[in-house]
Design a protein that fits this description.
This protein folds into three domains: about 200 residues, P-loop containing nucleotide triphosphate hydrolases (Rossmann fold), CATH 3.40.50; about 70 residues; about 70 residues, Orthogonal Bundle (Arc Repressor Mutant, subunit A). Strands 2-5-6-1-7 form a five-stranded parallel beta sheet, sandwiched between helices. It has about 375 residues and is of the alpha/beta class. The protein is globular, with a radius of gyration of 23 Å. The chain is about 50% helix and about 15% strand. α1 crosses α2, α3 packs across α4 and α8 packs across α9. It binds adenosine-5'-diphosphate (ADP) and magnesium ion. The site of magnesium ion has 3 residues, from α2.
């Protein structure tokens, strides 16, 4: 039997745990043509969530373009990624694809070629390094054209939106700003990390997208939602996992979707059919995971300064939400002053080793946190 716990890729259908409220919130935003910035840590389920929401919109009357900006590195690649996503979202056949692309993006010289597997693929003739000013306008004005006066519902999703910070200038950012303001009949959803999307683009007065839309922080999946999800997957394979053990798993991963799935994946392998998950089995599963990562974590650890190590050890072993600038934490971790803590925090945030969490901080890699826990000598 195939392991039912998936980690790494986009999850959908049965493999998608709850998020009912979030799906409903996103659907409402899409239906009301809102402009929404959805942000979270990496691998928290943004892509899976937005794809699930898109899948629930009625097929009729909606044009939904999902644009993955991860592979883009310039205005030109941004332009073709958007054009391609829009054309594909409106076309059911290859003939239609080229027709749509010609209709909306004629100046980008579209053509359909065969990829390595013989599947038709839409490509554009504009050069990667061309100055794509007019093409950018053309592409970003298209959603409003399609929406017309509201006869068509149009939703555009930009995934990994922080990529636009890599383009070398803020042309795209400025154009997106004007589009968001003017396109009343189009919904825009932006996905990305808090650090980049929110702190850099959205809260900085000097940037074009300052307060340009609503913001929607995506949290972990609550234990009450993991309970039935995890329990059923073990039961379907004739294995048992008790409530307390699922609770243990959620404590260890802090409900982080990727790490929870990963730990459950290993646990499911360790548990024989007809057996029940024990505390010992959970410890073994954690051990297996930490051994796999040991080299990477050791390398990371050795690259840190003594105060950074002290801070991380303190954070890993303290209660969630601990006040790290308060006297008690400063004393216990041996960092001597709040300004020392501040310096450490700045560096660790910049390196993505920690992230902000409701006025406190957390270690982004949940297994690194456990690694810090498990090693007495570190
Ligand atoms: N709703 C969910 N139910 C179960 N697992 C999820 C869910 N959302 C995310 N995951 C887990 O997290 C991993 C990363 O999800 P993904 O949507 O790619 O996150 P992001 O786009 O935030 O990086 C998935 O492979 C899966 O293991
Ligand atoms: Mg993603």
């Amino acid at each position: 039997m195939k392991n039912p716990f998936e980690y790494g890729g986009v999850v959908s259908g049965n493999a998608f745990c709850n998020r009912e409220k979030e799906v409903a919130d996103l659907l409402r935003a899409m239906e009301n043509n809102e402009k929404l910035f959805v942000f979270s840590e990496r691998r928290y389920g943004k892509t899976s969530l937005v794809r699930t929401a898109l899948g629930k919109l009625p097929k009729k009357g909606y044009v939904c373009a999902y644009v993955d900006l991860w592979p883009t590195d310039s205005e030109a690649t941004f332009v073709t990624a958007v054009a391609k996503a829009i054309a594909e979202s409106m076309s059911t056949s290859v003939d239609k694809l080229l027709e749509t692309a010609r209709k909306f993006f004629g100046s980008l010289a579209p053509s359909v070629t065969m990829d390595e597997e013989g599947k038709p693929e839409l490509t554009f003739g504009i050069s990667k390094h061309a100055r794509p000013g007019p093409a950018l306008d053309e592409v970003l004005e298209t959603p409003a054209k399609i929406a017309g006066k509201g006869e068509q519902n149009v939703v555009i999703v930009f995934d990994e939106f922080q990529q636009i910070l890599e383009y070398g200038n803020d042309q795209v950012e400025r154009k997106v700003r004007s589009v968001i303001q003017n396109h009343r009949k189009v919904g825009y959803i932006f996905l990305g990390s808090r650090k980049h999307l929110i702190e850099k683009m959205f809260m900085d007065r000097a940037r074009p997208l300052y307060r340009a839309g609503g913001h929607y922080p995506l949290g972990p999946i609550a234990e009450e939602h993991w309970q039935p999800f995890v329990s059923k997957r073990f039961a379907d394979a004739g294995k048992t996992i008790g409530k307390e053990r699922i609770h243990d798993v959620c404590e260890l991963t802090q409900g982080h979707p990727f790490y929870t799935q990963h730990l459950c994946h290993v646990l499911w392998e360790l548990c024989e059919p007809k057996a029940e998950v024990t505390e010992k089995m959970i410890q073994t599963a954690v051990q297996v995971l930490l051994e796999r990562e040991n080299y990477a974590y050791t390398t990371l650890w050795e690259s840190l300064t003594v105060p950074q190590k002290r801070f991380l050890k303190g954070l890993a072993t303290d209660v969630a939400g601990v006040k790290v600038f308060a006297g008690e934490f400063v004393r216990r971790s041996g960092l001597r002053s709040a300004s020392n803590v501040q310096r450490v925090v700045d560096v660790l945030l910049a390196k993505d080793i920690i992230d902000r969490d409701n006025g406190s901080f957390l270690i982004t890699d949940r297994f690194f946190r456990l690694w810090l826990h498990s090693a007495q000598t570190r």
